[in-house]
Amino acid sequence: MTEIVNADGQRVHVVESGPVDGVPLLLAAGLGGAWFDWAPTVERLRDEYRVIAYDRPGLGLSPAAAARPTLLRDTWIMEALAERVERPVIVLAHSMAAFAAEALARLRPEHVLGMVLVDPSHERTRLPPVPVGAALTPLATATGAVLGATRLAGVAGPLARRLILRRTSRRGDTVPDEVVRSVYRRGTVLGTVIAEEIAYREMAARLAWLRRRYSFPPIPLLVVTALGDVRGPRGKRAWAEGHERLAKLSPNGTRVELPDALHMVPLDRPDVLADAVARIHRASEVR
């Protein structure tokens, strides 16, 4: 089932599959991603679980955002989608989406049954004295509008997607090319990708602020670390250490390391994520 729903005042594209009475999974793609980033993983999960993949505002097939990207905006969207199913959810968050997933667990732990963070972003920084997102997001939106109006988005967007996947995935997109093009030729999507890039450090800093004020609940937590596209021994060590800190957020946290996997784990290693969900589900049942 595919629909546009209202999530905390934002119109969001949601793709749902699997049994309605199954344990609900909420899938959030990384920076600039779309629902089909999860397609191979969904295939392995939808027979048993109620799988809910969504596009953040302005991305995928979601309409343009009513508010700029911020940590709390994305957290409240997650909360609204969890409330729709009227049961606690297992959250699967890839890359930058891990910021909002962690914030949801800290601010609304009653909605989170467990969590899988998939090669998650992690930063340790203070909030900038003057957040730049508010000032620069309109420029990002205008850039997207110009690209869309001049049809440059139809070339630049799909090309950028292919170039990024060459560095981050060995498998590449698993949906038809026309589906990918229907998303990344939209000027709204390209403007939103730029806006999320701008918002990244502000989101990380806001999460650091939340960590000082709200505890992380003792939920089952699994962090998946991909090292195949991290450069150099020092870079690999720093990436793994950052993920180890995330795993230790919960006393029921653990980590799986994939030495040869690239960043787009949902595309390339759906088997690992299916196993991760099963582990989280089992652990949640014995709590």
Explain what the structure shows:
By secondary structure, the chain is α/β, with parallel strands linked by helices. It has one domain (2-127, 200-285): Rossmann fold (3-Layer(aba) Sandwich), CATH 3.40.50. 47% of the residues lie in helices and 17% in strands. Strands 1-2-4-3-5-6-7-8 form an 8-stranded mixed beta sheet, sandwiched between helices. Helix 2 (71-85) packs across helix 3. 48% of the residues are buried. The model has no long low-confidence stretch (mean pLDDT 93).
Summarize the structure.
The protein is 47% helix and 17% strand.
Q: What does the main sheet amount to?
A: 8 strands, mixed
How many domain modules? 1
- How much of the sequence lies in strands comes to 15-25%
Order of helices and strands: EEEHEHEHEHHHHEHEHH
CATH architecture field: 3-Layer(aba) Sandwich
Whole-angstrom Rg: 18 Å
Low-confidence stretches: none
Helical amount: 40-55%
Q: CATH topology, what is it called?
A: Rossmann fold
The helix tally amounts to 10
What gross morphology would you assign?
globular
Q: Distance between termini? A: 32 Å
- Could you report the average pLDDT, rounded to the nearest whole number? 93
The strand line-up of the biggest sheet is 1-2-4-3-5-6-7-8
Counted beta strands: 8
